[in-house]
Design brief:
globular; binds zinc ion; alpha+beta; two-stranded antiparallel sheet; 3 helices; three-stranded antiparallel sheet; 5 strands; Hypothetical Cytosolic Protein, Chain: A
């Protein structure tokens, strides 16, 4: 069975491959909260749909601030917006 996770923006449960993982590193790690394209980075994960709506609403709703209970650097949202553009370009 494919594991499912809940999107932090729309709260829909989806199969992991349909979601983007955002990871909050362990306290000892040097990297910031970031998109985990490898799905292998250590830390606490939060998931967001690979959909334009959710990617756009993430910033508006401060979805990751809420999920990680801390401030999130704006670079993360910029990266998500870049990803959104890429997704749009890849659409058939
Ligand atoms: Zn969603």
């Amino acid at each position: 069975m494919i594991p499912t996770r809940r999107c932090v923006v729309c709260f829909a449960k989806k199969a992991k491959p349909d979601l983007i993982r955002i990871v909050k590193p362990p306290k000892t790690a040097q990297f910031a909260i970031t998109i985990d394209t490898s799905n292998k980075k250590q830390g606490r994960g939060a998931y967001i749909c690979k959909s334009q709506t959710c990617l756009q609403n993430a910033r508006k709703k401060k979805a990751f601030e809420r999920s990680f209970k801390q401030s999130v650097q704006s670079e993360l949202y910029v990266a998500l917006e870049t990803l959104e553009t890429e997704l749009l370009l890849n659409e058939p």
